[in-house]
TrEMBL record:
One of its GO terms (biological process) is sensory perception of taste. Pfam families: 7tm_7. The lineage of its organism: Eukaryota, Metazoa, Ecdysozoa, Arthropoda, Crustacea. The chain crosses the membrane at residues 24-44, 97-115. This is Gustatory receptor.
């Protein structure tokens, strides 16, 4: 909601030929920060899967017993403990959340612009 109001004020400033660069940068950062985090989390999930596949496809029979046990444990953890990222334990941060946030911002902006 804060990003929506900030973007609306920036849009009004464009119409009045007065633009505050700080406000524009702040509103862009409000949107970009969670988006960059969600992209990083998706990359992490992809790399986790690639790592699991690389470990799982290796022949570990000729390795020492202790190293074999550690590799098996690590592979099991990669398979079963999927990372989830949340905001204060309330909302899961993923691409679906970011798309919902952008949809809400778009809706609020269209409502604010219709009252202009």
């Amino acid at each position: 909601m804060l990003a929506c109001v900030s973007w609306f004020e920036t849009f009004k400033a464009f119409g009045e030929n007065r633009i505050d660069l700080r406000e524009l940068v702040y509103s862009v950062v409000l949107i970009l920060h969670p988006t960059v985090l969600a992209i990083a989390f998706e990359i992490l999930k992809t790399e986790r899967r690639k790592t699991w596949l690389a470990i799982h496809d290796r022949n570990i029979a000729d390795l020492p017993k202790r190293l074999r046990q550690q590799i098996i444990l690590f592979s099991t953890q990669l398979l079963h403990l999927r990372p989830t990222f949340s905001i204060a334990g309330m909302y899961s941060v993923d691409t679906a959340y970011i798309l919902q946030m952008l949809g809400a911002v778009t809706t609020y902006l269209s409502i604010l612009l219709s009252f202009r």
